[in-house]
Design brief:
The chain is an alpha/beta fold. The chain has two domains: 29-249, Rossmann fold (3-Layer(aba) Sandwich); 268-319, Arc Repressor Mutant, subunit A, CATH 1.10.10. 39% of the residues lie in helices and 15% in strands. The strands form two sheets. Strands 1-2-6-5-4-3-7-8-9 form a nine-stranded mixed β-sheet, with helices on both faces. A three-stranded antiparallel β-sheet has the order 10-12-11.
């Protein structure tokens, strides 16, 4: 429910100009838009626990997502293709397990995480560094529209606020504060994703990192986090197992899964059906299923994360769960 619908004159921040107040009331006339004070029932419970929670939030989209267990996925804007595939696959697997994925709508890893999460039942929340009526970067406008329609956009900044450099560290504390844990996929040592992870550590959240090549600058941030105590993860199940107790302890519900494990991503079953006949290369899978190279690459990563397949010498893939469909 909305904290104020429409907000009275005493409910909006005192520093709002009369123009901002009028703009906010007009924005709230649309049913998908919400304004939450800290006292609102829908205000994220974990976010209230940080040292400087936002006094209010603008929310565009599905308000119920703010009351569900969340995991944040962040990383480099200039991510590698494999990094984006990993982020998308981890997000989809965790979303299918019942977790809502939080990220920052940036290019690269953030965008990939949102895309993967939208395909799962947990959906996604984008915490943005502008007013909730703006999109930054503009290249993610279509993605932002999809998130608003099927997930939620969240901001602590007044409507009309443009992107400012100092907005993004403040946005990062919300990303970390809303989440049970934070996964860093790719990050340089000076990346904003490292700031998010550090803020998560300060807030008592679990921090996860995916290791990479010692020669890649995008792995150095993850490796530093692992040396400093972040948990090295190779599969989505690593994160689910680590968070089950925490989710139960916080009474927000443990991640759900089917008796056979997390739900399969779209297009995965045809690949499993083909691999049931024996190990295949990715090119052979493309030929037999009619899927594109990109689709097969993403699905193979997802299935590997779910523990359904393994990579054999020579780049072939083998199905592991022969007793399951």
């Amino acid at each position: 429910m909305k904290a104020v619908s429409p907000p009275g004159p005493d409910s909006l921040p005192c520093w709002f100009t009369s123009e901002q107040a009028a703009q906010t009331r007009d924005w709230l006339s649309h049913p998908e838009n919400h304004f939450l004070l800290q006292e609102a029932l829908d205000y994220p419970a974990l976010l209230k626990e940080i040292s400087d929670p936002p006094a209010f939030l603008f929310v565009k989209g599905d308000l119920s997502l703010l009351s569900r267990p969340m995991v944040s996925i962040v990383g480099s804007r200039n991510a590698t293709r494999q990094g984006c595939i990993d982020a998308e696959a981890f997000a989809e697997s965790l979303s299918n397990a019942g977790l809502t994925i939080v990220s920052g709508l940036a290019e690269g890893i953030d965008a990939a995480a949102h895309r993967g999460a939208l395909r799962g039942r947990g959906s996604t929340i984008a915490v943005i560094g502008t007013g909730a009526d703006r999109v930054y970067p503009a290249s993610n406008r279509r993605l932002a529209q999809e998130i608003a329609a099927n997930g939620a956009l969240v901001s602590e900044f007044a409507l009309g606020s443009p992107a400012q450099k100092w907005h993004f560290p403040r946005r990062n504390r919300i990303i970390a504060g809303m989440s049970l844990g934070c996964l860093v996929v790719e990050a340089s040592l000076t990346s904003g994703s490292i700031i998010t992870a550090r803020q998560g550590l300060e807030q008592g959240r679990e921090i996860f990192a995916i290791p990479g090549s010692i020669h890649s600058p995008f792995s150095k941030g993850c490796h530093r986090l692992i040396r400093d105590g972040a948990k090295l993860v190779e599969t989505a199940q690593d994160i689910l197992e680590e968070l089950r107790y925490q989710a139960s302890d916080l009474q927000v519900g443990a991640p759900e899964s089917s008796p056979d494990g997390p739900a399969l991503p779209e297009n995965a079953q045809p690949i499993l059906d083909e691999l049931a006949r024996g190990p295949l290369s990715s090119d052979q899978i493309c030929h037999r299923t009619g899927l594109t190279t990109g689709q097969v690459s993403l699905m193979l990563t997802s299935l590997e994360l779910l523990g359904r397949i393994e990579v054999l010498p020579g780049g072939r893939y083998q199905r592991l769960d022969f007793g399951r469909r």
